[in-house]
Amino acid sequence: MAGRxxxxxxxxxxxxxxxxxxxxxxxxxxEEARAxxxxxxxxxxxxxxxxxxxxxxxxxxELRAATRISTARGRTIFLPTHRVISRSAPxxxxxxxxxxxxxxxxxxxxxxxxxxxxxxxxxRGSGYDSRLFTGDGNRGVDADAARWLADRxxxxxxxxxxxxxxxxxxxxxxxxxxxxxxxxxxxxxxxxADREGLASLIGLARTRNFSSALRRISGKSAxxxxxxxxxxxxxxxxxxxxxxxxxxxxx
Length: 251
Ligand SMILES: [Zn+2]
Known about the structure:
The protein is of the alpha/beta class.
């Protein structure tokens, strides 16, 4: 976890507020690292504000050239350096995971909520949306989901959306498995957020018993919510479109 040089590359650190950024000097300049630290500090502050959380989390970013898939492990976030440079890093998504770890919630909710919050923050002007799997964030996710529902790859991951577990191949096959799973989960979480409010979703992220809390808050099970969401999606799911231009990485 520490920023020491396992590959022999020189590492450096910059700090901004409650954010620490460790980076490889050969891959990123100090000014770029400082600019990213400022962006991440703003993202953290705005996420805490949006979610109604106390402003106290301290996060460490590890930017690495060799990192393939962005991940959050506890309060440490690993991002591929090239995505930071091209402003396509899912740093807001990973901040959401770090601050709201969803320890007891199913994967569809944890991933869908991180995607939803990333888009919500960027739409408020706080940083950028990586758009790893969606074309237009929260505004366009239902159209993206409708296209996946009309595609056999979307149908293949659908049993895991609104239920426990993750589809086989989600890490190895980002293009055909992770992409539909994230987009469908994001759309279902947005459906819930639009009807129950974001504060209810933040409560669900922190509860120890997701199923009973969802039923208590909304009066419905996750499977009932999935049925309602699918019924609403069905009319626009008629036209399959190619999604081959989607980018393929992100956690
Ligand atoms: Zn994620």
